[in-house]
Design goal:
Elements (H helix, E strand, L loop, with lengths): L2 H7 L7 H17 L4 H20 L4 H10 L8 H10 L12 H16 L5 H9 L9 H12 L7 H9 L5 H18 L6 H17 L1
Helix pairs in contact: 2-4, 3-4, 3-8, 4-7, 4-8, 5-6, 6-7, 7-8, 8-10, 9-10, 10-11
Amino acid sequence: MTYTDMFDAFPQECYTPEQEALLSKIKLDVQQHFSDHQKRLIHIEGVALCARCMAHIYQADPFICECAGYLHDWDKYLEPDEMVDEAHRLDIDMGVNPYLVLPLLHGKISARKLQLRYPELPTEVFHAIDTHTTGETNPSSESAVVYIADLIEPSRPSYDSIEKIRSLVGEVDLNQLYLDAYKSTLLYLIETNKYVWPHSIEIFNALITNESSCN
């Protein structure tokens, strides 16, 4: 199954009435929250759609993946000082000066705040949101799907690195796809002279080790 085919192969999910109602509320909340950021809203909707479709391919929970896709960027637009203040308030310790890792903070901040806003959601939703910026050494299927969907959703520009990951959807197992996506993100940071969170290297090494041990 190709990346493009994926979006046509799986119609709207048949969730329980309770799940449908909650998802409808989340969609409305997100639309209102990002009403002044239409480009971001397009990205968010693309991540949710991509995650739902990928969940079918990789036997993940589509409801968890879709909810996390809609909510993953909730605090994306906090100002830098506000982002750092929120991280301190929520006891988020990245082990380095938080201003060095501002792009990573919104996932962790959003996950903690959204647990209070949507207590009825499964905890796996918040874990996927938490790790969609940093990655992790042993992701669940749902967390892996959301991380990858954030990278390859349809509105992302068709750079060679992104097209490569898209071409592998359905062709390789989820562990390999996650490793390739994580490596792509690291290479982008290095090639564009951006700060690399030290723990990212540890995560990459663990992913490599895990993949080697499975082969």
